[in-house]
Specification:
The structure is a single chain. Helix 2 packs across helix 4 and helix 3 packs across helix 4. This protein has 118 residues and is an all-alpha fold. It has six helices and no strands.
């Protein structure tokens, strides 16, 4: 999935309830079901331009909320970095120090990361 499609899917997941029923339907058909504008227009009994207008309004509504999605992606990336660092510390500890205190701290970090990822 390309970045734009992934981004739009996240926006829909986070904010889909802000859309009208028609916007949700068209958005889902276009972005998730991969129907063309012409196919959606034919099924809905409207013009292709009418479908495009509904989609543009839906996307504009969702794009207005990108701050929280961007923050979510940054936090998710940071959690992955923390998780990798904790694994590396655990490996180094097992190989050299064998510190039970350090092992406990690594466990705490991993549990916190797991909780935040839920």
């Amino acid at each position: 999935m390309d970045q734009k499609a992934f981004h739009m899917t996240l926006l829909f997941d986070f904010y889909g309830d802000l859309l009208t029923d028609r916007q949700k339907e068209f958005y889902d058909l276009y972005h998730n079901e991969d129907l063309s504008l012409a196919e959606i227009a034919e099924n809905a009994g409207i013009t292709r331009q009418g479908v495009r207008d509904v989609l543009v309004r839906a996307e504009n509504t969702l794009e207005a909320k990108t701050g929280i999605v961007r923050r979510f992606l940054v936090v998710r990336s940071g959690l992955n970095t923390i998780e990798e660092a904790a694994k590396r510390i655990e490996t180094l500890n097992q190989g050299a120090l064998n510190s039970s205190e350090l092992a406990g701290l690594v466990k705490t970090i991993q549990e916190t990361v797991d909780t935040l990822k839920e």
